[in-house]
Amino acid sequence: MKKRIICIFVLFSLICIFQSDHAAYADTCKDWVAKVVSVQGSVQIKKTADTEWVQANLGDPICIGYLIRANANGRAAVELVNGPVLRVDQHTHVVFNGVKENASLIDLIKGAVHFFSRWPRSLKVSTPFVNGTVEGTEFLVRVDDNGTFLSIFEGRVLAENKAGSLALTSGQSALAKADQAPVLQTVVRPRDAVQWTLYYPPVVYKYPEGLKDTDPRFYTHRAASLLRVGRVEEAKSDIEQALKLDPQNSLAFSLQSTIAVTQNEKEKALDLSGKAVQADKNSAAAHIAMSYAQQARFDLKGALNSLREAVKVEPENALAWARLAEIEQSFGRLDESLTAANKAVELNPNVARTQTVLGFAYLTQVKIKEAMAAFEKAIELDQAAPLPRLGLGLAKIRKGCLEEGRKEIEIAVSLDPDNSLLRSYLGKAYYEEKQDKMANDQYGMAKEFDPKDPTPFFYEAIKKQTQNRPVEALEEMQKAIDLNDNRAVYRSKFLLDADLAARSASLGRIYTDLGFQDLALVEGWKSVNTDPADFSGHRFLSDSYSVLPRHEIARVSELLQSQLLQPININPVQPHLAESNLHILEGAGPSDLSFNEFNPLFNRNRYSLQISGIYGENNTIGDEIVVAAVQGKASISAGQFHYETDGWR
Known about the structure:
The protein is globular. It has 21 helices and 17 strands. Among the domains are: 1-30; 32-196, Jelly Rolls (Sandwich), CATH 2.60.120; 200-284, Alpha Horseshoe (Serine Threonine Protein Phosphatase 5, Tetratricopeptide repeat); 501-644. By secondary structure, it is α+β, with helices and mostly antiparallel strands.
């Protein structure tokens, strides 16, 4: 008994010492230059003068002179105080020597870092073989025994050492060796160098212990663990070993399918997941892998059926229930989604995916506080998962904090840089901030990563229309229709898109601005016939009717249906649109559709005031004032329209 008490006392003392050391470390870093936003595995921090390393935790500050290292199977993300995000690979040592508003200075002793920024930042990277001054938004630097490798995805860099210098631009790579000038390197697929940054969605729910290396499960479960930290090559090796021991191993095929989905090899993923299901129809992991492959090909109905089968064969699998909730939500079945999400949380509240789906369920109900709490817990459980970061960003934007939300989406992109939908959403955020060039860059990368995804084309069409570029907007919209002609043209392809604002964009104006009124009417009729209960189709027709003579009653009728069906949004309704027989000549008053017909891509708590007017001869005067606001679950729009004239001939 006495020995037991002594052991407990010693253990308690060690815990207290560790916590006090970590607290003391955090307290001494007041003027921090960076903070840790994601940690996986063994990642440590220490001051320059210290001899001991401290395990890094989410939210830890980093001051000038601090060192951070990621050990084997560890990786981290660090957000600099001036905005950029650094991803740190395993076996990497980095020293932070200074971060200012427009410039940063770091020493990369060994390993690899991936740099991502919304603005072109000046970053000076010192390595043992070459120093680089970078003006870019996204690039990679890797140091090993052979030299320093640089790859520029967006931006430019001047690599120099005592032997010479070399200027690089977007899409170029270079290698610098000891006592040799940097030289260009031809790399067929430059982004393969950052595969360690990718996020591989989980398919394994439980990890058994005590397995021997003669058991194929030893290798498949180790491979699943390696994928969690981005070690895809090591995972592939373990998967191959498992297949040697068991050529029909279902979990091995499932993991291979997950890798293929993440690397955008959709047909291969579907084939491998089919083998997984065929090898073991009672494996939830196989059906989950199949759902990812089907989802990647926009076969949502097939994904839903696969997940229903997954929870049928393994009803206690919380991960399967979380995935089911996710897909149910994509169909707009909010009650079924919330039921499945609650079931997942009931089975295991400590699975990040369950908290993520629960957060999106709350977000669709405009329960912002609860959604943020769920996303924050999901981030704690899986700091490398991009979805909870995206969800937290959407929740903050819905709350009215656009800048904070955009920063969360930037972190999400840094956690999964090859994800097309994340790039599209970051482009949306930049568009909301009126940063058009950065929005263009993100939409362009989204199209590159997934050419068959209509989402970036859809969002870019809206952006170009608001910039008075209707011909280009029409081209983008037609491309989106070609890629997804079985859905209405105003629908996004993001499966968990909780903000409905993008649907409110008045696409009818693209056609009417170009004089294609008949085509606009055909598209409007097609929309309301496809989904009579959707408000966007009725608003589409209302806008189309507004330029036609003797269509006032039809216009007002469609507008009324749109107002009755629409969710809360900031889209102000011009007072004159609800009236007929105004007897105003076209262009003779403030009656034309204006920019306020285009809703922001994000629905968020905000206020807007829009004024238009006209003044002319014969005492002609007119004005229209519209005030609109969204706050929580309420929205309001009020306005006045006035027009008078002594007459015209």
